[in-house]
Design a protein that fits this description.
The protein has three domains: 173 residues, Rossmann fold (3-Layer(aba) Sandwich), CATH 3.40.50.300; 82 residues, Orthogonal Bundle (Arc Repressor Mutant, subunit A); 165 residues, 3-Layer(aba) Sandwich (Rossmann fold). It contains 20 helices and 18 strands. It comes from Bifidobacterium myosotis. This is DNA 3'-5' helicase.
Length: 520
């Protein structure tokens, strides 16, 4: 019991309330830097240490391999779960939705099917190209068309829209397929994709979740086996849950039947921040987080964590102002900084992209002269294509750096075990051999998407102009609001200092001058 009390040390009152409410549905809405990860990992560790939960029946799901590794590292520090135990059934399981589902599928496959366990498609683009050839009888397929078709197929699948329903839903929801295709034509392509996949004996990423849903619906024994392995479910980043993920977790809990009966296992804790929904393009929506009480209520606890322990009041003030201009601002928490006042947020306008990159490199050198390490600094961009010029400038300034790019939202959720091990070692501050990293890994250049969940002492948020942030020219509405949330996520990565900048033109000659971002 004494050990359990130690686990709660260093939590504030609201965090502690969240960590000690162990039964029934719990919702935690946590602003950026409010200790969301700290709170859920302590909650799990506390519940296991007091004996309230059985570790082997605890499942915590996250959206990326990186987040799952971070959670496992923190749980290991707290004495539960950890790398060695993951998947062995002896400790807490912290995994992505997809790897948890893949494990379950593996566990019940031979009981529900005689066919061999299907292969996971290596390159979905290849299957899409083949499907396009089947439908159009053409071989010269433009990679951009493949990319757009693939995105639409993925969107349809995670939105739970089967081929047979696609046309009807397009009509009802006024949805247009990409590349000016007619819904009927796209449905043919979608069908050809599914057939091509089946003929290869392969499944795609979303099929993992769809298959587990199907098994839970139609195979009561297998469903019971899967359900009994989940006594206590925690879902991180619940604001990014897709309809498919939502369906799966409802089935895990024993609900979602055709009679619409309420979930049977009510030991579910969801954690998220509506202001950090940045995967709407991939079917995510904070709808489920906001209506959690309607679905699972009465709640045992409904907690808001609004104290930002990460960022200075200057950074937090700007983050709040960005959200205050949103039409749906009432959905967002207003943050309060727990820190002493710090540096003013700097704003700089450069003439060209190259000058912006050189200016940022010079400022990083200055910070280093004052004692900062390169890895304390991050340059955040809206898109991958902005990054090269910053790499060149850092190299010219003799600064080491590493690059984080958007690797496609799906590939971040199910990497191979090597990538997953790397992420775990990184989260524990170790290198690939398990030796503590002595060398500074360098300045981070990252897209905002890839920096989600990370924090840096000094953040350079670059390209703060119309066209880049917000990207393109979104009309007021959901697309514009997603860009606003990206700005918020970027700003809130900063601990001590935040530097905003943009360049008037790409190369100094452009006829059109860029205008500052409307969000600032
Ligand atoms: N009660 C607390 N006292 C002191 N520091 C805290 C407390 N809670 C959280 N922190 C610190 O605040 C920072 C953010 O915490 P954590 O990484 O758990 O955040 P998060 O809420 O998951 O972040 P985000 O949602 O922005 O990614 C960390 O450096 C953490 O150590």
């Amino acid at each position: 019991m004494e050990q359990a009390q130690t686990i709660l040390e260093g939590l504030d009152e609201q965090q502690r309330r969240a960590a000690t409410t162990l039964n029934g549905p719990v919702r935690i809405i946590a602003g950026a830097g409010a200790g969301k990860t700290r709170t859920v990992t302590r909650r799990i560790a506390y519940a296991c240490a007091t004996g309230a939960w059985k570790p082997e029946r605890v499942l915590a799901v996250t959206f990326s391999v990186k987040a799952a590794a971070e959670m496992r590292a923190r749980l290991a520090q707290l004495g539960v779960g950890g790398a060695a135990r993951q998947g062995t059934g002896q400790g807490v399981t912290a995994a992505t939705f997809h790897s948890a589902a893949l494990n379950q599928l593996n566990g019940v496959w031979t009981d529900v099917c005689d066919a061999p366990f299907p292969h996971l498609i290596e390159d979905q683009r290849d299957v899409v190209a083949q499907a396009i050839t089947r439908v159009t009888a053409r071989n010269d397929i433009d990679p951009l068309t493949v990319r757009d078709m693939l995105a639409e197929i993925n969107w349809a699948k995670i939105s739970l829209i089967p081929v047979a329903e696609y046309e009807r839903i397009c009509k009802a929801a006024n949805h247009r397929p990409p590349s000016g295709l007619e819904p009927e034509r796209f449905a043919k392509l979608y069908d050809a994709y599914e057939q091509e996949k089946t003929s290869r004996g392969e499944i795609d990423f979303d099929d993992i979740l769809l298959l587990v849903c199907h098994i839970m619906d139609d195979f009561p024994d297998a469903a019971a086996q899967i359900r009994s392995s989940i006594g206590w479910l925690t879902v991180d980043e619940y604001q990014d849950v897709s309809p498919l993920q939502h369906r799966l977790l409802t089935l895990w809990l024993g609900g979602g039947g055709p009679d619409g009966k309420a979930a049977m296992n009510r030991n579910v804790c969801v954690v998220g921040d509506p202001a950090q929904t940045i995967y709407s393009f991939a079917g995510a929506s904070s709808w489920d987080l906001l209506r959690f009480a309607d679905e699972f209520g009465p709640l045992s606890a409904d907690i808001n964590l609004g104290i930002d322990y990460r960022s200075t009041p200057e950074v937090v003030g700007l983050a709040n102002r960005v959200l205050a201009a949103a039409p749906n601002r009432d959905d967002y928490l207003k943050l309060r900084s727990a820190r002493d006042p710090g540096r003013r947020v700097s704003r700089t306008v450069y003439d060209t992209d190259v000058e912006e990159a050189q200016g940022v490199a010079a400022r990083i050198r200055k910070l280093m002269a004052a004692g900062a390490k390169p890895s304390d600094c991050a340059i955040l961009t809206r898109i991958n294509a902005q990054q090269a010029v910053f790499g060149t400038a850092l190299r010219a300034a003799g600064l080491k750096f590493r690059v984080r790019r958007d690797a496609g939202w799906q590939s971040t959720a199910l990497a191979d075990s090597a990538a997953s091990k790397r992420a775990l070692l990184e989260a524990m501050g170790l290198d690939a051999t398990g030796i503590r990293q002595e060398d500074d890994p360098g300045v981070t250049i990252s897209t905002i998407h890839a920096a989600k969940g990370l924090e840096f002492k000094h953040v350079f948020l670059v390209g703060c102009s119309e066209g880049l942030l917000p990207y393109g020219a979104p009309a007021p509405g959901e697309s514009l609001e997603e860009e606003r949330r990206l700005m918020y996520v970027g700003i809130t990565r900063a601990e001590d200092s935040l530097h905003l900048s943009y360049a008037r033109t790409k190369d100094g000659y452009g006829a059109q001058q860029r205008r500052p971002s409307r969000f600032l």
